[in-house]
Amino acid sequence: MENLLHILESFNFKGDLIECKIFGSGHINTTYIATYNDNGTEKKYIVQKVNTNVFKNIDALMDNVFAVTSFLREKIKENGGNPNRETLHYIKTNSGDKYYRDSNGDCYRAYRFVDKSKSCDSVDSPEIFEKSGIAFGRFQKYLSDFPATTLNETIPNFHNTIWRFENEFIPALEADIQDRAKECRDEIEFVIQRRNDCSKLVNLIESGELPIRVTHNDTKLNNVMFDEDTDDAICVIDLDTVMPGLALYDFGDSIRFGANTCAEDEKDVSKVAINLDYFEAYARGFLSEAGKSFNQCEIDNLAFSAKLMTFECGMRFLTDYLNGDTYFKIHYPQHNLDRARNQFALVKDMEDKMGKMEEIVRNL
Ligand code: ADP
Ligand code: GN1
Ligand code: MG
After folding, report:
1. Residues 291, 361: Cα–Cα separation, whole Å
2. For ligand 1, mutation pick of 11, 22, 31, 220 (most atoms within 8 Å of CB)
3. CB 132 near ligand 1, within 6 Å
4. Which residues on neighbouring strands pair with residue 270, listed in sequence order?
5. pLDDT tens-digit profile of 90-137?
6. 225 - beta bridge partners?
7. Is the CB of residue 320 below 6 angstroms from any atom belonging to ligand 2?
8. Cα(146)–Cα(159) distance, rounded to whole angstroms?
9. Ligand located closest to 257 CA
């Protein structure tokens, strides 16, 4: 905490510190909430230690998030919204830098806590999920004329599934440095059997059928803040992976997380299934904002993208398990393996229901 006080003092937060504690359930960064008393008014700030193992070039990352947020502020103003509530507001350090580097080399950044907001780790109703679809769809729509070439690629090949298969999964399996492959033969086989799926979207990019857009790339439910009272999805957060990508990545990843009948790490995989009502609700919300510019190939692959993003994430969890858990935060030793099993159960259920998912998209 003493260390953290030093960090808090490097940002110009208003008032006297009441408390600072660890916050949220993200898998990558370490997030704190700091509460201050500013002449009787409570002010809350988010302070994050950025995971520099995942984000190798923090300057490039912070340039992206500052550029994207200032662009979005203008868009939101033009469209009659409230930029203070609907955009992340980063706070520079006292010396005017976009982040603070302490003597250990750890990097911290700060932003305003989105006022009167909450985040959700699971979907309670189709209505809430539809609202998150509207928010992520609008986010993509607003960024449609952002100059994509000025964005840094914060994690190269982030959703290049075949690259992840060939360059991460297979090497991890071959090295098997923790001698864990013997515990997950079925899961390894599950991945290998689906190798052909991995290149489908990449091939459609190469053939010019799928257009590259500026996308969020990490559209899980707890990356959007909801209004405490109305449950409206107000502000898209976690902008670290905003990069050129496919609309399908954003759609598929939301479905992966939010339309699962269980949490992403539920161990009892017999409970895991795709909730088709949630699938439909999200698709309706997302398409109502982003869908107007979609081409037929994007529409045709919406249902498949949900399966592919779920598969890719499961493969990443399994890869991390084989590597000895160096990427995602885990809360117990087999956490990544449980997550992988869960994602593969969801892939299986989506394969069984693919016809219905495609029909839902057609009817919308
Ligand atoms: P990670 O990359 O680790 O997922 P996030 O940026 O998503 O980090 O932050 C983790 C969690 O912290 C979010 O899911 C959300 O609950 C909370 N959070 C982050 N930024 C804000 C903010 N500006 N206002 C309120 N809560 C926030
Ligand atoms: C990570 O950072 P967070 O928790 O929002 C990951 C996503 C995964 C997700 C799985 C930068 O998201 O790609 O889909 O975990 N983010 C990064 O829950 O790798
Ligand atoms: Mg997050």
Report:
1. 11
2. 31
3. no
4. none
5. 999 999 999 999 999 999 999 999 989 999 999 999 999 999 999 999
6. 235
7. no
8. 20
9. 2
66 lines ligand 1 (CB under 6 A): no
**C-beta of 28 in contact with ligand 2 (< 6 A):** yes
In contact, 324 and 243? CB cutoff 8 Å: no
SS3 for 42?
strand
Contacts of 313 (CB under 8 A, 6+ apart): 253, 256, 343
Count other C-beta atoms under 10 Å from residue 255's C-beta: 29
Query: If you measure from the C-alpha of residue 315 to the centroid of ligand 3, how many angstroms do you get, rounded to a whole number?
Result: 19
Ligand 1 atom, smallest distance to 239 CA: 6
**Neighbour-count burial of 89, counting CB atoms closer than 10 A to its CB (0-12 exposed, 13-18 middle, 19+ buried):** middle
Indicate the range of 5-19, 128-142, 153-167, 270-284 predicted with least confidence: 5-19
Contact 90, 65 (CB under 8 A): yes
Task: Considering every ligand atom shown, identify the ligand nearest to the alpha carbon of residue 309 and give its number.
Answer: 2
Q: Are 226 and 118 in contact (CB under 8 A)?
A: yes
Q: Is 358 exposed, middle or buried (0-12, 13-18, 19+ CB in 10 A)?
A: middle
